[in-house]
Amino acid sequence: MKAGGRPKRRKPVRYRAKDSRSLTRRSLSVFAEVLITLGLVLVLFVVYQFWWTNVTAGQLASKAQIDLRQAWRATSTPAPEPTSFSVGDPIGVLHVPAMGKDFTVVVKEGTTTGVLNEGVAGHYTSPVESALPWEGPGNFALAAHRDGHGAKFHNIDKLKPGDTIVLETERNWYIYQVDRTLPKTSKTDVGTIAAVPAKAGYTEPGHYITLTSCTPVFTSLYRIIVWGHLVDTLPTDPQHFLPAALL
């Protein structure tokens, strides 16, 4: 400040327009990088969920079927059908021609995530303890993934009344015929796997089979259901030649 004069005023600082534009560009660049990163993460997740899990589960499922058949061949006389299984124990091999030529899938005890993620079909023990085919009247209820982890029931929607479903065990062939399908129901609809599933049109005890999976594909919002009844039981032979129902 000069003597006797007024204080010198500082000029206000003004941000230039180009500085503002530069800040905007940087913000947009960061936002774009975040979107790209999220997109890559999503792509990797999809690849893992719907491709890689199919690869690993397919390997596990193939080994499970090889091991099961080797165990069958190792015995000279088929053992009686077991009265119980532990979770994860193999029960047999399911044949469903409508799901694909020569389609087979190992059936194991239980429907836990750990069991189903092995690329197999699981036998319901909860919330309803479903029957085994060689027991008295009841419902042999199964579940399998529709996508990812082997996607063994991916083509469950292809089944229609009159189609054949066969369970192969060491001792017997259990041959079922599809009676009815339910394209969509609640995931909590436990009546679909009841001993006498009313929605299938059954009114009295019998030897039934139920297949369940998720729907629509790539979601787990609802369940798709297939019901059938036992039409024949045939003994296996040492070579496990296919019955006429599968030829």
Can you describe this structure?
The protein is α+β, with helices and mostly antiparallel strands. It has a single domain, classed as Beta Barrel (Sortase, Chain: A), CATH 2.40.260.10. 25% of the residues lie in helices and 26% in strands. Strands 1-2-3-4-7-8-6-5 form an eight-stranded mixed beta barrel. 31% of the residues are buried.
CATH homology-level superfamily: Sortase
At the first level of CATH, the class is: Mainly Beta
Biggest sheet strand order reads: 1-2-3-4-7-8-6-5
- Our estimate of the beta-strand percent is 25-35%
General form:
elongated
Order of helices and strands: HEEHEEEEEE
Mean pLDDT: 89
N→C terminal distance: 108 Å
Tell me the layout of helices and strands.
Blueprint: H1 17-73, E1 90-95, E2 104-109, H2 113-116, E3 121-123, E4 138-143, E5 164-168, E6 172-186, E7 207-215, E8 222-235
Parallel strand pairs: 2-3, 4-7
Antiparallel strand pairs: 1-2, 1-5, 3-4, 5-6, 6-8, 7-8
Feature tags:
single chain, Sortase, Chain: A, 247 residues, alpha+beta, elongated, 8-stranded mixed beta barrel
How do you describe this structure in short?
This protein is 25% helix and 26% strand.
